[in-house]
Amino acid sequence: MTARQIQYYRYLRDVLTLSVTAFGGPQAFLAMAIDLLVNKRKYLKEKELWELHALCQLLPGPTSTQLISAIGFRFGGPSLAYLALITWIFPASMLMISAAYLIDFLQANTPGALNFARFIQPMAIGFILYAGQKTIFKMSPPRWAPFL
Predict the structure, then answer these.
(1) Sorting pLDDT into bands at 50, 70 and 90, what band is 37?
(2) Chain centroid to CA 75: how far?
(3) Cα–chain center distance at 56
(4) For helices 26-33 and 120-139, what crossing angle results, to 10°?
(5) Is 111 helix (H, G, I), strand (E, B) or coil?
(6) Is there a domain that residue 147 lies in?
(7) Which end of the chain is less packed: N or C, by CB atoms within 10 Å?
(8) Has residue 144 got a pLDDT over 70?
(9) How far is Cα 130 from Cα 142, in angstroms, rounded to an integer?
(10) 145 domain-assigned
(11) If you average pLDDT over residues 93-105, what whole number do you get?
(12) Which residues does 94 contact at the CB level (< 8 Å), separation at least 6?
């Protein structure tokens, strides 16, 4: 196995990690992508990520999916872009299909089993606010907090 193939597998593993954990909208995804793809792995510079993100926002469709594919294309050509797209879409799709079947099963067979779901919305709002704050401070850091 060549060093380039190992880098491709590592990129696909990082895409899989983002696919499973980056729920909460574009703010959460961008905060995690900057942390993992730019700061830790150094696949590209932060300025390049923001430029690719701006380009992907011009296109119709989900920006995060296009961004993952664009980084894969830039890093390894069309084959890595397609593999990154499949890696990005498949786990989240399987997770959502499984969750839909589980919720349908619980609603039909166990009354009151979904009372825990009342905590999901406040948690999601907290995640989105945190990621939004990180993204805003990256774009325009406040003068009162130079250490952020």
Answers:
(1) very high
(2) 18
(3) 14
(4) 60
(5) coil
(6) no
(7) N
(8) no
(9) 16
(10) no
(11) 91
(12) none
Structural domain count of the chain:
1
**Tokens found for residue 28:** 């959460």
**CA distance linking residue 8 with residue 73, whole number of Å:** 11
Judge whether 146 lies within some domain: no
Q: The pTM is what?
A: 0.67
| Domain enclosing residue 35, as ranges | 3-139
**Rounded to whole angstroms, what are the CA distances from 92 to 5, 101, 125?**
25, 14, 20
Of residues 71, 69, 106, 107, the one with CA closest to residue 89: 69
Burial track 5-23 (b if 16+ CB lie within 10 A, e otherwise): eeebeebbebbeebbeebe
pLDDT tens string 45-76? 999 999 999 999 998 988 999 999 999 999 88
Tokens of 14: 């990082």
Decide if 52 contacts 69 (C-beta within 8 A): no
Tokens of 73: 């294309």
Between CA 10 and CA 80 the distance in angstroms is: 11
Residue 94 or residue 2, greater confidence: 94
Residue 144 lies in a domain: no
**Among residues 6, 22, 58, which one has the least CA distance to residue 70?**
58
Backbone angles phi, psi at 59, to 5 degrees: -85, 150
